Structures are given as C-alpha cells and as structure tokens.
Amino acid sequence: MERVFNMYRLKAGVSIEEYIKFSQDLDQVVTAHRPGVLSFEAHIIAGSAEGSEVAIGADPTALSSNVPYHVIETIDVANWAAWMRVVASDEMAPVRDAWELVADSTTTRMILGRPI
Question: Which of 4, 50, 70, 84 ranks highest by number of CB atoms within 10 Å?
C-alpha cells in the first residue's frame, strides 16, 4: 500500500460549499471505487501552525488565507502505477472536467508516500 497526497488551492471565487458538493457528489464517489484505490479522503484545510499556536480561521465557511493549500486529499492505493492508470482512465473524465472548474491546477502538488 502506498499513499498519494494531492494538494491544491481552489480557484478564486469558488466557495467551500461548491467544493464540498463536487467532492462528495462526484470525486469521492467515483475515485474511491476505481481499481487500485483502497481509500480516498478529502480535507479542507482550516489553518496552520505558527510556532506553538495553531492559526485557524474564525469563519468555518471561509477559506483560510494563511495556508499553502485549501484541500489535501489522501488516497491509499495499491501502488503508484495503479494510481496513474486511475488518473488517466476514461471513467475519471467527468471528475477531471469538474475538478478543473473548482481547483487551481497551477497550485497542485501530487506526492507519493510509503509507510515506514
């Protein structure tokens, strides 16, 4: 098992509510059921550590401005090759198209982690 961390900011003008609708209604439903995907979770980032303090936005419906990413997805996969097949699959086309409407692709970082 390997873990993919997919991190990105939302496009300007996209609300948390709009992103959650996309994530819950499409992304999590389709992605979690692709071959090679063991689990899928999406997290809205609420704040970041500043020294020993955690800076969290006061409004839970507002995006935090003090974080490098608005969303971090954690995806457990059989292996990186399986994940790359998922990403490129025809079944993911609707997810990719909708994701382009909510996510700022210029901020995306996708990294692979292995348990130690």
Answer: 70
pLDDT at 54 over 60: no
Pair 3, 116: CB distance under 8 Å: no
d(Cα 72, Cα 41) in Å, to the nearest integer? Answer: 8
Residue 40 has pLDDT above 90, yes or no: yes
Q: Residue 9 to residues 37, 89, 97, 102, 108: CA-CA distances in angstroms?
A: 23, 24, 16, 9, 7
CATH of the domain at 63: 3.30.70.100
Distance CA 26, CA 3 (A): 21
Q: How many domains does the chain have?
A: 1
Report the sign of the C-alpha dihedral through residues 57, 103, 34, 29, in that order: positive
> Per the structure block, which two tokens stand in for 15?
């609300």
The reported pTM is: 0.86
CA distance 14 to 110: 21
